[in-house]
Amino acid sequence: MAKRKENSTNSINRDFITANCDAIYTICKIGGRWKMMILFHLAEYKVLRFSELKEKLHGITDRMLALQLKELEADQLIHRQVFAEVPPRVEYSLTSIALDLLPIWPALEQWGAKHRAYQSKIK
Known about the structure:
By secondary structure, this protein is of the alpha+beta class. It has two domains: about 1-30, no CATH class; about 35-120, Winged helix-like DNA-binding domain superfamily/Winged helix DNA-binding domain (Arc Repressor Mutant, subunit A, Orthogonal Bundle), CATH 1.10.10.10. It has helices at about 10-20, 20-30, 35-45, 50-55, 60-75, 95-100, 105-120, and strands spanning about 45-50, 80-85, 90-95. It is globular, with a radius of gyration of 17 Å. The N and C termini lie far apart (about 35 Å).
């Protein structure tokens, strides 16, 4: 995956918009194909290992899962705990800031169901 140039118009626009709109900032942190599903599974199961997450996320590659986990960890939405064992064991869990998302998930699901029904009617 190519790195975005930080001085590109796209990056400058993204930075401006996320700095000035909290809703867009939030969507940027949790948006994408896999992040919400990762957060959802960690909320449901509390603690999961890489292989357990991969099993629950049908179709995700190891590389993509690792990338998404790194981004979520960098954004302090998940905690990565490494155990000093052989073989190494790593567990992922939600941080307290990620737990603050839980109350808004039902509203997102309701909106999604409503919008999906609307879209299916007009097609």
